[in-house]
Model the fold of this input.
Amino acid sequence: VKSANILEAAFVDFLSGKTINHSYILPYDVETIENSNIHNITFESLKLNNAITFENFIENIFNLLKDFYNNKNTIYLIAHNNFNYDQLVLEYNMKKINKNIEDIFKFCDSLLMIKLFKPDLKQYNLKYLSSCYLINFNKYQFHTALDDTNALLNIVLSLINNNKSLINHFYDYIVNNSRFSIRNYSFKNLR
Done:
């Protein structure tokens, strides 16, 4: 799994909810795209969505994020199951283009955060969490970058709005427990 190609990525600002970037990315050296039945990405859909190379994506996203956050030195990427999937995949793809991920991002895993603050839930996948915390959860097409990102943002905001004391806990968790290039990638940015 960690050797998977990144086919789609989305970045949404945590504070404003603004989509900073949503890109489709051309895979390396593959003749077939696996799991299209889950994420609905095919070579045809990549072409229709003007997919770019991973090198161009990284250059573009790094510049966009630095501009959006006024050249802040630390950009936090929060994703669900980040340490066991997204970060690993991003690191693998970054190595292909000889880039060091530690120079760009810090990673946080919302799955661990939510388990820490809501230990009694029976499941922790995004679809289940959305059904628990979001009114219109059926509007999301899960396993797509932008919808997963927006669903996760709204889940975290819902948890915070239902318990105002969680905002400081979430912030402390993110700042104090984010890992450098140990595992995953995907989602949001905190200032």
